[in-house]
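TA notes, week 10

Several of you asked for a full example with nothing omitted. So below is the full record: structure tokens for the whole chain, then the designed sequence directly under it. When grading your own attempts, check the secondary structure regions first.
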């Protein structure tokens, strides 16, 4: 019952560096931004890609990680390319860059997209046979595969849908929190804690 990962470990390290406490609400992407916009949350982290569209509604921290996207299938699936899953049902996660990639190629590969709120349910759809493949942020899937989540990478990285992750607050709100995050992020990059966190999950960059 403990949530971990690059994003959350960075948040914990930043909070320790800056001396602030926080309460974590583990929500799906849509629910997380809804909580932010309704004032039930002060900020959002984890897969919050910095895009021009989102910058119209949210203020972002400095980027703390540059992520690419990927596709994955069940480990025993013989597929090795996107051509091998043409005409298939695939799983995507609401509001993500990986979903945007899937949407951009769905006609070319005749893909039927089903949307999920979080990664765990999306992976379950693939492993249970309800979906042939899923589209995901590369570092998340890469770590999952290394932890034997039952899948293998089909397309390892798609750079044109790469995007930086940031910590987001509602536009014009919580400027002090954003400043603390940026200051803490700078400090943990300088003292080596940041590199330690990234290496823990996906190896040296």
């Amino acid at each position: 019952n403990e949530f971990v990962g690059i994003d959350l470990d960075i948040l914990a390290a930043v909070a320790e560096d800056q001396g602030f406490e926080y309460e974590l609400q583990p929500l799906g992407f849509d629910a997380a931004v809804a909580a932010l916009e309704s004032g039930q949350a002060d900020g959002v982290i984890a897969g919050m890609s910095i895009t021009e569209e989102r910058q119209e509604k949210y203020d972002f921290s400095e980027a703390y990680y540059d992520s690419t996207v990927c596709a994955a299938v069940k480990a025993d699936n013989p597929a090795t390319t996107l051509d091998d899953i043409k005409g298939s049902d695939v799983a995507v996660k609401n509001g993500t860059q990986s979903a945007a990639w899937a949407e951009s190629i769905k006609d070319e590969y005749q893909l039927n997209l089903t949307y999920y709120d979080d990664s765990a349910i999306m992976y379950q759809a693939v492993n249970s046979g309800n979906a042939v493949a899923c589209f995901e942020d590369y570092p998340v899937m890469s770590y999952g595969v290394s932890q034997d989540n039952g899948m293998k990478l089909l397309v390892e990285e798609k750079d044109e849908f790469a995007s930086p992750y940031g910590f987001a607050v509602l536009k014009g709100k919580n400027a002090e929190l954003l400043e603390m995050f940026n200051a803490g992020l700078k400090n943990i990059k300088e003292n080596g804690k940041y590199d330690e966190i990234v290496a823990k999950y996906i190896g040296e960059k």
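The chain is about 40% helix and 20% strand. Use that as a sanity check on your answer.
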